[in-house]
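Need a sequence for this fold. Nothing fancy.
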């Protein structure tokens, strides 16, 4: 799932772009993976959905990608005026890839280099990558150039060590959410005085895992013992923080956690589909 968020300032954000409408336009390795999973549904995509209520992709100011897997990156070329906000290490990951199982293929040329905002390094050891601070990956423009007055420093919020208050007003927080792949981020959005919505990306892939009724699966592929998460233990820790936030609430308001792949939530919340809302 993808999510449209409009800040009171008028700034328009989309969190994740879902699967590409014309999946044949993915790279060869990704197409090969998708062909093993047919049939898939690719319509309407984010651009089609926005147009339902008179918005064009060109109206979007910023796209936040929870991570770089093919089913979250959609068609970036549709968003001609948007900056793409990605977690630390994403550019390195796109360039060098990850090949430990069949769903791990990425696209080097996914994002327009002049419109990428890569978040600063979180206050934690890096995940499966030695270092990203080298001449090959000079710092991108920061959030403050996109949203004047923003402080893009990571700060603790509730159970999370690393969060960024995107607009500096306590309404939208980027959350460093390690475990799934390098650069995985979540988004916490205040939608009313009594409710937050936590967009969990691929922190887990089924509501039964979120509810603690099932665990994170592993399997054997190409002679390896693999998991959908590059670091299962870190993913479990991240999920625990999300579960704690959901159980305790925040600032006197409840927290509704939405997983990117929660088919049951999608089925039960059709009224939330654009131009509706959560």
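Here you go.
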């Amino acid at each position: 799932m993808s999510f449209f968020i409009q800040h009171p300032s008028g700034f328009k954000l989309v969190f994740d772009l879902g699967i590409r409408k014309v999946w044949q336009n993915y790279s060869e390795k990704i197409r090969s993976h998708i062909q093993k999973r047919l049939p898939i549904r690719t319509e309407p995509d984010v651009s089609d959905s926005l147009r339902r209520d008179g918005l064009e992709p060109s109206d979007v100011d910023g796209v936040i990608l929870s991570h770089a897997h093919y089913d979250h990156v959609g068609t970036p070329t549709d968003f001609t005026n948007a900056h793409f906000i990605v977690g630390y290490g994403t550019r390195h990951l796109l360039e060098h890839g990850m090949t430990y199982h069949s769903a791990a293929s990425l696209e080097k040329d996914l994002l327009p280099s002049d419109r990428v905002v890569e978040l600063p390094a979180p206050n934690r050891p890096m995940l499966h990558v030695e270092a990203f601070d080298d001449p090959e990956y000079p710092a991108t423009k920061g959030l403050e150039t996109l949203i004047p007055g923003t402080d893009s420093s990571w700060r603790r919020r509730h159970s999370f060590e690393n969060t960024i208050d995107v607009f500096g007003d306590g309404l939208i927080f980027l959350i460093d959410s390690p475990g799934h792949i390098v650069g995985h981020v979540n988004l916490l959005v205040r939608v009313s005085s009594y409710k937050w919505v936590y967009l969990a990306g691929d922190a887990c892939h089924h509501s039964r895992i979120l509810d603690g009724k099932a665990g994170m699966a592993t399997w054997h592929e190409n002679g390896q013992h693999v998991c959908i998460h590059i670091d299962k233990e870190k993913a479990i820790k991240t999920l625990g923080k999300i579960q704690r936030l959901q159980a305790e609430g925040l600032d006197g308001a409840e927290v509704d956690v939405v997983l990117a792949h929660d088919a049951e939530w999608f089925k039960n919340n059709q009224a939330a589909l654009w131009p509706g809302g959560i």
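For context: The domain at 3-272 is CATH 3.60.15.10 (Metallo-beta-lactamase; Chain A).
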